[in-house]
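To close the chapter, one final illustration. This time we ask the reader to focus less on the individual chains and more on the assembly as a whole: which components sit near each other, and how the overall shape emerges from the parts.
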Amino acid sequence: MNSDRNAPIGVFDSGVGGLTVVREIMRNLPEERIVYFGDTARVPYGSKSQATVLRYSRQIVRFLRTQNVKAIVVACNTASALALDTIENEIDLPILGVVKPGASMAVTATRNKRIGVIATESTIHSHLYRKLIQAEDPEITVFGKACPLFVPLVEEGWTRDPITVEVAKRYLAELLEKDIDTLIMGCTHYPLLRSLLRGILGDQVTLVNPAYETAQALKRMLEELHLEKESSCPEEEKYRFYASDTVEKFLAFANSVLPCEIREAQQIPIEEY
Amino acid sequence: MNSDRNAPIGVFDSGVGGLTVVREIMRNLPEERIVYFGDTARVPYGSKSQATVLRYSRQIVRFLRTQNVKAIVVACNTASALALDTIENEIDLPILGVVKPGASMAVTATRNKRIGVIATESTIHSHLYRKLIQAEDPEITVFGKACPLFVPLVEEGWTRDPITVEVAKRYLAELLEKDIDTLIMGCTHYPLLRSLLRGILGDQVTLVNPAYETAQALKRMLEELHLEKESSCPEEEKYRFYASDTVEKFLAFANSVLPCEIREAQQIPIEEY
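The assembled structure is written out below.
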């Protein structure tokens, strides 16, 4: 436990996608300090096994502890689905994933009790969204669809491209046939496809962004634990960024996603943690 | 140096793509024993830095040495482009990548001295195909194009899909404008798109498959070094497969690509090498 309210929040992801969660934390908890780690040397997690994702997540949590964080946000749906359960029993720090806040919002949003989830293969196969949703309301039916091409399409920059529209139509067809009225964007890259998805889904389907819900849940958690930041700190000390591969591409993506300019990131030999 | 002619050949790749090289070795050197390692826990390499790909490749070479191989084939274009140069100066085993055999065949094939290369981002940025081709013939012009969506499209199984045709048309358009008459498929997954690419390129462009050329180059190298296998061995000892992630998906892909049935593969903690 670290009861220093002015300590940073540790946020991690398999790569750069978790920066969409950082963006929401920056917007909604503007006082908080953040230490971010992106596992760019081993990205992606979404096609890998539970054992491997758990091993990687444990190493990252050990690294974040060396940064004296007061809480940890698992800003990766796959790691939240495959590793969080185990890790939260191993550490004495408050820790929060993106799956539970997204699932809870979807339960609130649905009217016809039919929810769709789009995510990586590993997240879909974990069935964690389904379990958490049905724990809150067993009458809800959840339909999952793995969308492995969405991350590479976003990383190619084709977020408004006719080809991406075709891919999305194919992925979403079976969910739309199921008459869902709520869709969870269960991978951190997917909010960057929001307007494209909106165009296919129409106005009748509520889109849930777990990144936004996670920032709200983090705010509530810090308040309950009396861990909200008290004093402001110099802007240059506020945010720190780390990655496991070299940082040039990381910085370019960060600056395309975040509301402030990030000048520096540092490479960490994560296998050594 | 390992002068045991009956020792296996070590073959490695970032994941499963290198199995297309194994397939060519099986077909063209049917007597040889093979030990394959696929780095499925850290795949892909194609978007990662040289330093990271070199570190991973060194670990794999150390693992393959524990298997007493007589030669090593780097069955990954990215590792061949980013790591082979350094590693071949560090070991006393014959080692061969896929880039040089592919480049040499393209030099032989081109008539108008205009060659295209499609590959991962890291392979294209290394400019190794260009350097090797121009070392053989400085008058040849080489045009590179990174095609980051091809691997995920192949892994999605969309190898004959209209969406993949659209993506390929877009990637190939600028190469076709350059009037290339030869195209190197510079990533191990791409030969699985051969007939789709052929449909777009027409009959005027020669498609070069470095996997096939590498098997031929390996044959010549073993003959020159008097390392060809002498005696046959029981079928069940002939091929051994290792991966860094759990092996279920690896086995499924292997059995869809290879000409014989693979029943077993073993997971290796590659970071420890």
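Residues 52 and 241 of chain B are 23 Å apart (CA to CA). DSSP finds 13 helices and ten strands in chain B. With these observations in hand, you are ready for the problems at the end of the chapter.
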